[in-house]
Amino acid sequence: MLKFLKNLLFLTLILFTLPIQTQAQEVREDFQGTYRAEVKNITDEYSAEIWNNTEAVYKTIEVKFLEGPQEGQVVTFDSDYPLIKEGLKVYINYYIYIDGNEVYSITNIDRKNRIYFFIGLFVLAVILLGGKQGLRSLLSLAASFLAIFYILLPGILLGWNPLVFSFLVASAILFFAIFFTHGFNKESLVAYGGTMLAVFLTTILAIIAVKVNYLSGQSSDESTYLYFNSGGSLDFAGLLLGAIIIGVLGVLDDIAVTQAAVVSELYDSNKDISRMEVYKRAMRIGREHVGALVNTLVLAYTGTALPLLLLFKTREYSFTTAINLEIFTTEIIRTIVGSIGLIITVPIVTLMSVYFLKGYKSKHNHSHSHTHHH
User: Which residues have CB under 8 Å from 71's CB, separation 6+?
Assistant: First the structure.
């Protein structure tokens, strides 16, 4: 009897181990790569149920590979990828399974030329409206992206503290954005100093908000994929805090530079005006600006989360249930912290400008290059 149980246990271990090993082998060996191809012909179209009475439209397509080991070859397969039409350039995942079966699936549409067109349109619009200052803004924007992609992201993946590192990179981005775009002058110095103080206070508020609301930073699909790709080694709460800082940076820059310019103009327009009068007038403009920007910030986050809002609406969650879900709580906290950061930036920068810019003679006009949403 004991021998029989041993044999049974041995056979069970074999049965449960072999599929796992085979599956692991498939995962390592079946994916051949992602290659660019062109849809040459659509030969058939039909509907099929995929899940929960939901139907998808499948098309039988012929595609010609434009690169990779099958370059020049035409293959035929069925795909439910939307918006497919003849002549469209796509990217295809190519698999060879353990039994030799070849499988193809469309992973994306080749959009790069269209993206380049709209980038060119944006650059042209900024230069036509902003002139040299617009060009400096574009160079500053490019430098910001380079700093994020080649300094911030690699640093976080190497294990540096995402909160501290995001704050440092944000400081560098802000320095370059303000001084390169608006020149090395007293106004820029006041705007930078005031913005950094506001960013510091906003960071403290963000830390408190994330802690007391028990936000893990792992509420989205992207964070789940990143968790597995990084082996769970990243600080996701710190990533969330870093994202809040980077996200609010551009708007704080906008409002700080504007307030410094307003104070400088008020002093220039009346040499005998008192500091208190300048502060009152500048704050009046700042309140209008904040109102517009807070509205913009809320609508921007809402627009980004619109499909998510519709999803939960179809499930008929109550309001209290919805806001307690971490994915919603995260966006609410992100919006509120960012808005408070905007609000505190106005009095801080205005007060510093009123104190430091009295008697300062501006050496440039104040044609503000940022987009306003009044």
Answer: 35, 65
Residue 92, classified by CB atoms within 10 Å of its CB into exposed (0-12), middle (13-18) or buried (19+), is buried
pLDDT digits (tens, 9 = 90+) for 330-373: 888 888 888 888 889 999 999 999 988 887 666 554 444 443 43
The DSSP secondary structure of 236-284, one letter per residue, reads HHHHHHHHHHHHHHHHHHHHHHHHHHHHHHHHHH-TT--HHHHHHHHHH
Q: How many CB atoms are closer than 10 A to CB 248?
A: 26
Query: Running DSSP on this structure, what letter comes out for residue 162?
Result: H
- Taken in order of first residue, the domains within the chain and their CATH numbers are 31-110 (2.40.50), 130-356 (no CATH)
Q: How far apart are CA 104 and CA 106, in angstroms?
A: 7
Kindly report, residue by residue over 226-244, the tens digit of the pLDDT. 877 777 778 888 888 888 8
pTM given for the model: 0.70
Q: Apex CA 301: angle with CA 218 and CA 315, to 5°?
A: 65
